[in-house]
Write a structure and sequence with these properties.
Length: about 90
């Protein structure tokens, strides 16, 4: 069973992570990819959802919940609509 890392990262500085959680649910990881990008109109950069498979050889990083309200709001909408991203 795979472990997935769900992150919201800045396109301007990739090391700037605003949200990080881990899940074993492939369905949740697929829906997370559909969370809308946060676009900053002045710079053209934004914050995008990124899903990666967590490799066991690397320790887990700390969870970050700065954008948890934003992510949970959109995940709830996707769940209600029955959106499916993965096959």
């Amino acid at each position: 069973m795979s472990l997935y890392c769900l992150e919201m990262r800045s396109t301007q500085q990739w090391s700037d992570v605003r949200y990080r959680q881990y899940t074993r649910s492939l369905a949740r990881a697929c829906k997370f990819e559909l969370v809308p990008k946060i676009q900053f109109t002045d710079s053209g950069h934004g914050i995008v959802p990124v899903v990666t498979e967590h490799l066991r050889m690397h320790p887990r990083q700390r969870t970050i919940s700065i954008l948890s309200d934003y992510v949970q709001k959109h995940m709830k909408v996707l769940r209600k609509r029955g959106e499916k991203a993965c096959l």
